[in-house]
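Ticket #4471: structure export looks truncated?
Reporter: QA, pipeline team
Priority: medium

Steps to reproduce: submit the single chain below to the structure queue and open the exported record.
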Amino acid sequence: MSLASPKSALLEGAEIPEKVLASKGFHFQFHGEGKSSGGTFAWGEFVRGDRRIELHVRFNLGLVRYHAGTESKSHDYYMRELGVRDQCHYPGFSEDSKEAFLGLAHDLLRQGKYEDALAEFKRLEYPERLSESDRKMVELARKRTHVS
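Actual output as written to the record:
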C-alpha cells in the first residue's frame, strides 16, 4: 500500500479489518484529516451503537482505541485483559501500513473467537451436559470477553 497520504492509507487500510468487523455490525466512518506538529494525520472509527474502534494514521497505523459507552481502552490494554496480548500481531515493525492493518485484523479475529464460543454455548439445548473441560473453556471465554 502506498502511503501517498495518511487519508488514503487509512481508507485503504480500513478495508482490511472491515472484513472482520462488518459481520459484527460495525461500519467505518472517516472523520477527517489535518496537520499538527507531528505532520499530516487522518482518523476514523468503526462504529456499532455505543461501541467504537478509533484509528489514527500518520506515517502508519498508530493509535487504536476501543470505546464502549464511557469506557475507553488502548489496543494493548484490551488485548492484555483478554489474555491474548502475546499472540497479537499489532503493532508490528513493518513500514508498510497494510501490514499494520493486517495485524489489527488478526487481533480482532482472535477476540471474536471467544465471542463465537459463547454464542455457541448459549444455543446449546442441554449445556449442563458439557464435559468439565468444555465448561472451563466457556469460563475462559467469559473472562476474556467480560461476559457473565
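Status: closed, not a bug. The export was complete when the record was re-opened. Leaving a note from the reviewer for reference: The mean pLDDT is 82.
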